[in-house]
Amino acid sequence: MLKIKNLHASVGDRQILRGVDLEVPTGEVHAIMGPNGSGKSTLSYVLAGRDGYDITEGEILFDGEEILDKPAEERAALGIFLAFQYPLEIPGVATMTFLKAALNAQRKARGEAELTTPDFMRRVKGAAEKLNVTQEMLRRPLNVGFSGGEKKRNEILQMALLEPKLAILDETDSGLDIDALRVVSDGVNALRSPKRSMLVITHYQRLLDHIVPDVVHVMSAGRIVRSGGPELALELEAKGYADYVGAAA
Amino acid sequence: MAAVQETVDQVRRIDVDQYKYGFVTDIESDRAPKGLSEDIVRYISARKNEPEWMLEWRLDAYRRWLTMNEPTWARVHYPKIDFDDLYYYSAPKSTKGPKSLDEVDPELLATYEKLGIPLREREILAGVEGASDRRVAVDAVFDSVSVVTTFKEELKKAGVIFCSMSEAVREYPELVRKYLGSVVPVTDNFYATLNSAVFSDGSFVYVPEGVRCPMELSTYFRINEKNTGQFERTLIIAEKGAYVSYLEGCTAPMRDENQLHAAVVELVALEDAEIKYSTVQNWYPGDKDGKGGIYNFVTKRGDCRGARSKISWTQVETGSAITWKYPSCILRGDDSQGEFYSIAVSNGYQQVDSGTKMIHLGKRTKSRIISKGIAAGRSDNTYRGLVSAHRKASGARNFTNCDSLLIGDKCGAHTVPYIESKNASAVFEHEATTSKIADDQLFYCMQRGLSSEEAVALIVNGFVKDVIQQLPMEFAVEAQKLISISLEGSVG
Ligand SMILES: Nc1ncnc2c1ncn2[C@@H]1O[C@H](COP(=O)(O)OP(=O)(O)O)[C@@H](O)[C@H]1O
Ligand SMILES: [Mg+2]
């Protein structure tokens, strides 16, 4: 599903990604771990098509197609979803309105009919209940005044509605207490499917107790420096990132 | 070959002849010569068959105007207007316009297309010569004529007077004499005084005591009867306990050969009466270099003359090259209330200096100001507001919220609040914010599948929501669409 080859990205003269190689086959869940500042979020932004990065080398193939020259909204319509580490606030726009606008924009881009309001409401209701997202929350402006946990639940709700092929979760566990972590992880696990791939970015191993990955990668200084099975996460938890921070320098 | 030559000659002959003897004479009889003088004022009054008192009123205004200077305090810049180089009276048909849609600014046409305006109406809006005559001759008109007739009958049953100002001067002289200039005095300001001398036409509304006007009154029904010209004059009176909601304007951008527009609107609310006045103003802002747009210098004021009366102004301003406009409320009656809800969008080279004045005279008077300015392109957007409490206005309260949103980094937003209080018990609250649409917000929306333009529209609609909610339903939907269109191309 996703193939990243020798990806180099920089902002100004600062090189952040220095040759990322990564392959995520369809249906698999991969985790990326690594010290702060190693380039994990940058990788997720570059995958999603955020402006402001110079891609100096490398390629990103999604379902065999080069996507680097596609704008963010086209990549979204192709099925790439990013759950943000820091979800943005949009004052005055009800969460429900935003969800509908997003879903219909993607459907339109794919040549599908827009959903009728009752049809849409039914889908939202189903997904929201599973994530403990209340109707009251859906009426509030998007992410405005939401607690950390509410924001993250709202990200997963969007993922559930948009049904992406590839979901990238950037530090979805940060700022969550243990109960909230369970709700969010259950939500993510419910979306695991043989047709969907996931890239779970995290600094801590604890998320991977709940969302058990098929493969774990370690990122350091803008590169994937090691890959292994779920046991690699436990090893990192025990030893810390000291080795990799050293390797980066 | 010969036939062709003959045709050419014939056309040439007709052309010359008509120019010399036909059309020009016609036009001359329908249009006063350029410039302003007592004679022109007399001419205007005579053309409208006005009574002597109306003429005297105009002349008085004209003489006072001669002693006044153009104000310069607003944050707008434009070449000096030569008031002797303008026409002050032209009958509707004589205005020169483009010969066909081919001669109209393509940007303007694209906007009509997006708003879904039928072809024939596009011609009228763009001022294509003869377009409105054709309309009279063809189909659609029969519908709208009958709609207008039913509409008028229903109003009559309720006792509401809704007619053109010219008609009111002739048919309801006592009302006009009593109220005209009673809110905006003849000498109020340079443009209002000019308007008083030469006003072309406008609406007159009178709602009798205790009557709730059975429908929204819309200029749409009146403007189609007759082009009102550049010096519009409107007067609305709500008697004790009456209620009326009035809609002015149209979401389609109007093109007009008259670059200067100086309208005056006066509202009078007596005891327990309420007037809601909503405007969507979308005059031609000029081409992409800012050329040819309308200068809009308006004086709008409401007088809450009776106790517990209420006046609320709601405006969505997206058009004009220059907007100079401060719909205001004089809160004279005890416990009266004034409201001002405004969205002012500027893009390209537009300049907007708009706001309100809330003058608290009576006890326990309340006012509320919600202003949302959106600046994009190279435009300048200024909110200018005055809230004042006079000695007797004990317990007066005001709440002002003034937000600006910037799109891009070549535009400007400015907030100029003036607050004066001569009564210690008055409570005035003022909140102001300036924000930018952050790249991160746009990216977040685009990651979810929205295009950058859809993302801007969504964020902007969220920003203006509090004001949009004040508009009548069908206006609200159109206004949202209009705001999005006005901001197209402002990012990326
Ligand atoms: N827009 C930017 N401009 C300059 N430096 C940046 C920018 N974005 C990220 N960086 C830098 O790149 C490095 C990687 O950042 P990031 O991708 O956020 O790491 P992580 O998510 O792994 O903590 C950090 O040193 C960070 O300061
Ligand atoms: Mg990060």
Automatic annotation (TrEMBL), chain A:
<dbReference type="Pfam" id="PF00005">
    <property type="entry name" value="ABC_tran"/>
</dbReference>
<dbReference type="GO" id="GO:0016887">
    <property type="term" value="F:ATP hydrolysis activity"/>
</dbReference>
<keyword id="KW-0547">Nucleotide-binding</keyword>
<dbReference type="InterPro" id="IPR017871">
    <property type="entry name" value="ABC_transporter-like_CS"/>
</dbReference>
<protein>
    <submittedName>
        <fullName>Fe-S cluster assembly ATP-binding protein</fullName>
    </submittedName>
</protein>
<feature type="domain" description="ABC transporter">
    <location>
        <begin position="2"/>
        <end position="246"/>
    </location>
</feature>
<dbReference type="InterPro" id="IPR003439">
    <property type="entry name" value="ABC_transporter-like_ATP-bd"/>
</dbReference>
<dbReference type="InterPro" id="IPR003593">
    <property type="entry name" value="AAA+_ATPase"/>
</dbReference>
<dbReference type="InterPro" id="IPR010230">
    <property type="entry name" value="FeS-cluster_ATPase_SufC"/>
</dbReference>
<keyword id="KW-0067">ATP-binding</keyword>
<dbReference type="InterPro" id="IPR027417">
    <property type="entry name" value="P-loop_NTPase"/>
</dbReference>
<dbReference type="GO" id="GO:0005524">
    <property type="term" value="F:ATP binding"/>
</dbReference>
<comment type="similarity">
    <text>Belongs to the ABC transporter superfamily. Ycf16 family.</text>
</comment>
UniProtKB/TrEMBL annotation, chain B:
<dbReference type="InterPro" id="IPR037284">
    <property type="entry name" value="SUF_FeS_clus_asmbl_SufBD_sf"/>
</dbReference>
<feature type="domain" description="SUF system FeS cluster assembly SufBD core">
    <location>
        <begin position="221"/>
        <end position="463"/>
    </location>
</feature>
<feature type="domain" description="SUF system FeS cluster assembly SufBD N-terminal">
    <location>
        <begin position="156"/>
        <end position="213"/>
    </location>
</feature>
<dbReference type="GO" id="GO:0016226">
    <property type="term" value="P:iron-sulfur cluster assembly"/>
</dbReference>
<dbReference type="Pfam" id="PF01458">
    <property type="entry name" value="SUFBD_core"/>
</dbReference>
<dbReference type="Pfam" id="PF19295">
    <property type="entry name" value="SufBD_N"/>
</dbReference>
<dbReference type="InterPro" id="IPR045595">
    <property type="entry name" value="SufBD_N"/>
</dbReference>
<dbReference type="InterPro" id="IPR010231">
    <property type="entry name" value="SUF_FeS_clus_asmbl_SufB"/>
</dbReference>
<comment type="similarity">
    <text>Belongs to the iron-sulfur cluster assembly SufBD family.</text>
</comment>
<protein>
    <submittedName>
        <fullName>Fe-S cluster assembly protein SufB</fullName>
    </submittedName>
</protein>
<dbReference type="InterPro" id="IPR000825">
    <property type="entry name" value="SUF_FeS_clus_asmbl_SufBD_core"/>
</dbReference>
<dbReference type="InterPro" id="IPR055346">
    <property type="entry name" value="Fe-S_cluster_assembly_SufBD"/>
</dbReference>
